[in-house]
Every structure is written in C-alpha cells, then in structure tokens.
Amino acid sequence: MKMQNIDERTVSSFGQEWSTYNQSRLPDDEKTAQRFEEYFAIFPWDTLPNHPVGVDVGCGSGRWALRVAPRVGALHCIDASLEALLVARSNLAGQSNCTFHHASVAAIPLPPGSMDFCYSLGVLHHIPDTMAGIEACVALLKPGAPFLAYLYYALDQRPWWFRGIWMGTDVVRRGIARLPFWPKRALTELIAVAIYWPVARLSAVVERLGRDPAGLPLSWYRDKSLYIMRTNAFDRFATPLEQRFSRAQIATMMRKAGLEDIQFSENAPFWCAVGRRAQPHSAAVVAQPG
Q1: Residue 285: its pLDDT value, please?
Q2: Is the model's pLDDT at 38 over the cut of 60?
Q3: What is the H or E stretch that residue 148 is in?
Q4: Most buried of 10, 63, 77, 263, CB within 10 angstroms?
Q5: Sign (positive or negative) of CA dihedral 248, 249, 250, 254
Q6: DSSP secondary structure string, 152-171?
Q7: Spacing of C-alpha 29 from chain mean position
C-alpha cells in the first residue's frame, strides 16, 4: 500500500540517521532521563487510566518508547521508515508490550478513537501536511486522551540576529540535504565537532559564571553529549523537508484538530505542547435569542 503524507527523501534520510546513530551509545541513564523529562515535562501521566494503550507516531530509533513502554500497558510504535523500525525493534527488544507498524501518519492501522494517549516528537514538521498529521494523531484518541507534540519553533521569541543566524544555517541545510549519504555524514560530523560542541560549551561556561545562557545559540546542548550533538546535527542538516511553526500557529492547528486544554512547555526544546481530545459535550454552545 502506498504511503500518504510523506516525503520519500526525508523518510530515507531518517532511515540513514537511525541506522547510523542508533542511540545504543547514549551516555549514562541520568542524562538520558533528563532528555526524556525535557520533552515529557508537561505530559499528564497521572491522568492516564490503568495499563493505558498508546501510540508513538514516528518512533525512529525507539529512544522515547524505551522510557514510555515500562510505564504503560501497551505501546504501538509507528514509523514510515523500515530501517528505523528495525533499529527500534532492536532497541526495544526487552519490552514485550511494544507492537511495530510500518506506516505513514496518514495510514496508521489502528482503530479511530481507541488510544489512551499519543505522542509525536520531532516528526510532524518533516511531513508535507503537518495539520493533516496532527488530525490523524488526534483521530486515534479516545475523548479526553492527551496528545503530546514537539514541533520545530519558528524562532518566534528570538531576536533578529538569532533569526539571521538560523537563516544562514538553513541555506547550508538545503545544500547538504541534496548530497549522497557519506558526504552528508562527513559534513554533519564536522558541524557537530567544530560548531555544536564549542558553541554549546561556551553556554556551559556562561552558566557556570552565574549568567543565564538560554538566549545563546545551541544553549540547549550545553549539558548534552557529543553523541547527541552528532545525531542532531545530522537530523538538522541532512533532512530535506523541514517546516517551522510559531506557538500561535501550533495552538491553532491543535484546536482545529479537535484538541482542548492546550498547554505549552516554557522550557527548551521549543515547542512542546500537549492537548486533550475534546469531549463530545465540549462543542461550542450557540446562545439562543431572547
């Protein structure tokens, strides 16, 4: 069956990424747990039912599923890349409650309205129609069930000079993304070592001096390993299709998809947002005349 709402070159790029950086060399559990908490800080774990069944849309290497699976009854791992799914199967071999599906977000083989939760982190900005992707995720949920998303931000709260730097890097990304795999890998490795590492460590020094480094480029990486920087440099510069959204745009898309009680994390990475599928009774009530 032909997959829908995907960019084939981008799917291929992610297959290469997770086959190369399969997350088996992540640093100690403490740092891995910290990264997980940064993305899931606003996720309402305490409101899920007992033994909840959920779905990871765009599971990649299974790095998030590895920490979600022990907390839930069952987890469906979805990815459009068969290479990525093979990596996820290997990384999640110790989790007996995971089921794997080779599918695009537009053709997930699960019944609508059947899931207790859903999350999609760093995925839906890499498909042609992000709005349709959010709607497809929400359609899987039971009423009141939460959906957590991470979408690249449009640097909406950043100063002009920060946005200017990003515009320059985006020109570089478009060029690198057209290259064959090995030149792409070599260049992104160089970017990680020569740019990510020193700039991020500068933010770490600023923090140790008692100043807030949050406004500096790559400050999120100040306590991250070089392995994470290498992975994310490939993710950032080797991916052909990338879209970015402002906080307001994300909120609008989530509301249009049928989510309510939308909440954004105020901390990096930006933007992480969570909402609940609207209950049937929460449709707008039209005031009667008189």
Answers
A1: 41
A2: yes
A3: strand 146-150
A4: 77
A5: positive
A6: -B--TTS-HHHHHHHHHHHH
A7: 20
Tell me 289's DSSP state: P
Q: 281: which strand partners?
A: none
**How is the chain split into domains, by residue range?**
8-154+244-278, 160-237
User: What span, in angstroms and rounded, lies between the C-alpha atoms of 69 and 97?
Assistant: 7
* Alpha helices per DSSP H over the chain: 8-20, 29-40, 65-68, 82-91, 130-139, 160-176, 181-191, 197-208, 226-237, 247-256
Q: What is the pLDDT of residues 59-76, one digit of tens each?
A: 999 999 999 999 999 999
Q: What angle do CA 7, 13, 18 make, to 5 degrees?
A: 125
pLDDT score of 279: 86
pTM of the model: 0.90
147 forms beta bridges with 118, 275
φ/ψ (deg, to 5) at 241:
-110, 120
pLDDT digits (tens, 9 = 90+) for 71-109: 999 999 999 999 999 999 999 999 999 999 999 999 999
Handedness of CA 78, 81, 86, 88 (dihedral sign): negative
Taking alpha carbons only, the member of 238, 240, 279 closest to residue 258 is: 279
Handedness of CA 58, 64, 65, 71 (dihedral sign): negative
